[in-house]
Amino acid sequence: xxxxxxxxxxxxxxxxxxxxxxxxxxxxxxxxxxxxxxxxxxxxxxxxxxxxxxxxxxxxxxxxxxxxxxxxxxxxxxxxxxxxxxxxxxxxxxxxxxxxxxxxxxxxxxxxxxxxxxxxxxxxxxxxxxxxxxxxxxxxxxxxxxxxxxxxxxxxxxxxxxxxxxxxxxxxxxxxxxxxxxxxxxxxxxxxxxxxxxxxxxxxxxxxxxxxxxxxxxxxxxxxxxxxxxxxxxxxx
Length: 237
What we know:
By secondary structure, the chain is mostly beta strands. It has one domain (44-227). It is built from two helices and 13 strands; from the N terminus they run ααβββββββββββββ.
């Protein structure tokens, strides 16, 4: 009996594959794709030059643009601002701030909308000054200053121009100076105004000093700022 069992065991072992399993080959590793280099952002000067190139030259324009351009990133896209002067201008000719709405295109810009006379002011072909302010509204606002002297009477104004997605829009015209000493010897008046107490999209105050001292408040109503009390106390020429 024992010998028979031993023979059966040998037969069973002979029928079994006792060869040890070969270890599985590891799956081939995919070659790593090299990361693409990230381009460095363009410098402000390079972006400004690209923006200027995007605006076609108007050979019929009477304005000369000589370098104090600004490129801003408004909430609705890039905007180019250009200050233009009229060479050898007459007394009644004004300066300008031209506004161009752009769109990004490759590494440069393309012109979307042009407002070549978005704001005009001043005399003898130029503005008194211009700047960009974030204080008056959530949208960028141009502050364009200009004025002149007529027959001995000098006046100056500041125009607020809001840069909206639909285009530039004047929101207030503010008398900032008056002087009639060149046209009258007695009772001459001289006033200078300064904008203060600005509350964004709500109100601001212009404080005057000189031969008189008073303040005028402007309140936003809809799309414009309106002067409280109607007409300004600042005389006109």
